[in-house]
Amino acid sequence: MSEQFPEVIQQALDFEEKGASYYQNKAKEAKNPLVKRLFLSLAVEENEHQMRIHEIYQAMKTGQDFPEASTGHSLEDSIRDFFKSLSQSELKLEDNVEALTVAMDLERTGYAMYQDAADKSSTNAEKDFFKAMQKEERDHLTALENVYYFLTDTEDWFANEEAKVWNWMNL
Question: Which CATH number describes the domain made up of 5-169?
Fold first, then answer.
């Protein structure tokens, strides 16, 4: 374990805690059920990240292998299932656009933080861990971008290539 790892772990824990708190607070304010569900789902994932970071750090301190990552659910699958249950009028509520913008910036910051930590890692295990966290942040950003563009620029959203959007949101 590199000397910088404990400091980076604390930075990651602080970041994930900040994200969870932000998403929980914004979910309470959201009027659009899709936005509310997305924020609640992201809050849960940020809390899961904190637990995962603790588990990894404990394993590294004791020289054990990393615990297996949970492969429970997909954020996209969760949002897709919820999206299908909503009415057209519920989906048209343009709500929390500013909160979505801040959230996208938050996820971009996390992505960059984990990239920097991976670049500075001295072991493959550390690098793999930070790359996995970086992928999680990218998945969160993708979710936020899809909902943001769906709510704010629906025509442009529909014009995007299928690979760039959650094509199941086509009504």
Answer: 1.20.1260.10
Q: What is the reported pTM?
A: 0.76
- CB atoms under 10 Å from CB of 56, counted, come to 22
Domain ranges of the chain: 5-169
List pLDDT tens digits, range 74-97.
777 777 777 666 666 566 666 668
- The 10s digit of each residue's pLDDT in 86-128 is 666 566 666 668 888 899 999 999 999 999 999 988 888 788 8
Q: What is the residue type of 14?
A: D
Question: Can you tell me the distance from the alpha carbon of 155 to that of 151, in angstroms, rounded to the nearest whole number?
Answer: 10
Left (φ > 0), alpha (ψ -120 to 50) or beta: where does 96 sit?
left
Residue 146: phi and psi, rounded to 5, are: -60, -45
